[in-house]
């Protein structure tokens, strides 16, 4: 077991998730929301957020892998698993664990826009703004954080620690 320090406690996470869900419910009013959860990292966050939404929600999943998130290596995103439902004319809300370089969300948004949704927004649990290489601003942000390597609440280090109920960093 690595030495993991708590960055955001379970209690603070729960509180912020309620705030975010209330904001999203309010912004979409009586509209349906088509949530796209990015596997695997965003699962815990997406489950907790969607449980608190007051709208009708459809949920689907996508899994991508990004290579060379540095501009020098011209970043590419590969779709490993795609959504299986039609998003044309739907209000799409992409839920992601963390924005780092910004490559993943830039590419996914670009890809999904081709499918002609009615609207497309993004909700991220964490934002490491200082690491950005591709301009990207999420519509909903859980917490802005410094440049730590994060684990827990969906996020992994070599596939471990996703099940931690809090957000931690490896020392
Ligand atoms: P981006 O494309 O550089 O914005 O990277 C986003 C992806 O990198 C996320 O979906 C995460 O899977 C992964 N990632 C970035 N930072 C961390 C971290 O601190 N811990 C675990 N995964 C991370
Ligand atoms: Mg990810």
Map the helices and strands.
Layout lengths: L3 E5 L1 H19 L4 E7 L3 H9 L5 E11 L8 E6 L9 E9 L3 H11 L5 E9 L12 E5 L5 E2 L15 E4 L1
Parallel strand pairs: 2-3, 2-5, 5-6, 6-7
Antiparallel strand pairs: 1-9, 3-4, 8-9
Helix pairs in contact: 1-2
Describe the protein's architecture and organization:
- This protein has helices spanning 10-28, 43-51, 103-113, and strands spanning 4-8, 33-39, 57-67, 76-81, 91-99, 119-127, 140-144, 150-151, 167-170.
- The chain starts with a strand and ends with a strand.
- The protein has a six-stranded mixed beta sheet with strand order 4-3-2-5-6-7. A three-stranded antiparallel beta sheet has the order 1-9-8, with helices on one face.
- The protein is globular and about 45 Å long.
- The mean pLDDT is 95.
- The protein is 23% helix and 34% strand.
- By secondary structure, it is of the alpha/beta class.
- The protein binds inosinic acid and magnesium ion.
Q: What are the defining features of this structure?
A:
single chain, 171 residues, alpha/beta, 6-stranded mixed β-sheet, 3-stranded antiparallel β-sheet, 34% strand, globular, binds inosinic acid, binds magnesium ion
């Amino acid at each position: 077991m690595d030495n993991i320090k708590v960055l955001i406690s379970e209690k603070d996470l729960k509180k912020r998730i309620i705030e975010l869900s209330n904001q999203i419910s309010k912004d979409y009013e009586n509209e349906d929301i088509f949530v796209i959860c990015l596997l695997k990292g965003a699962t815990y966050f997406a489950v907790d957020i969607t449980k608190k939404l007051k709208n009708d929600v459809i949920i689907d999943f996508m899994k991508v892998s990004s290579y060379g998130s540095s501009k020098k290596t011209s970043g590419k995103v590969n779709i490993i698993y795609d959504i299986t439902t039609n998003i044309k004319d739907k209000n799409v809300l992409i839920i992601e664990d963390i924005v780092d370089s910004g490559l993943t969300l830039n590419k996914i948004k670009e890809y999904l826009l081709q499918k002609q949704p009615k609207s497309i927004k993004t909700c991220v649990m964490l934002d490491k703004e200082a690491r950005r290489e591709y301009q990207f601003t999420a519509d909903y942000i859980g917490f802005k954080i410094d440049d730590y390597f994060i684990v827990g609440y969906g996020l992994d280090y070599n596939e471990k620690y996703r099940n931690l109920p809090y957000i931690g960093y490896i020392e």
